[in-house]
Amino acid sequence: MSQLSLFVKSGFVKAPLANGIGRYVPQCQRMTLKFCLGWGNSRGVRDFIQHDLIEFVKQNPGTVMYLKPRRHRSPVLVAEYLNGGREWFSLNDMTREEVYKWVDLYRTKAGYPDMHFKNYQHSDIPSIQGYWTPFTNKPADRNMLEFPQNSLNTPLNLKPSTSEIISKLYGEPQEQRSSR
0.70 exceeded by the pTM? Predict the structure, then answer.
């Protein structure tokens, strides 16, 4: 058992019922930016509000954005979700770009607390073979080819057919034999 699992709850994946069937419903209902108008640790939040907030709100009409100026307090982002979840995050001494990334991250979350997800399946002896991909058993020399290649339309390990072997033995071209 890892040290992290002692403090993080575990559970199964919970998804909003049929979200995405018909139309997608963003789970973030509203976000509140609390910041100070004068302190320096709110500078990134004020720059985000001045330069990026209008464009962000136009791109995300399903999420309501509230601004709450407070005197002599650290900047905070509060996100409220449709499932009743509420998350609080400090934006203290962050740049404008970092604030934008955190606001975008909390906009895309579902509002469930961070947890270690359980699987419905369990194996005492997990596979050691690794993952299979369509490129697993392909020859490595194909990495250096320039495409399009006509020779790739046929399998590389193809043995000559019986009719090709006979035509080579008797010296008769294959086109003449097929016209008979």
Answer: no
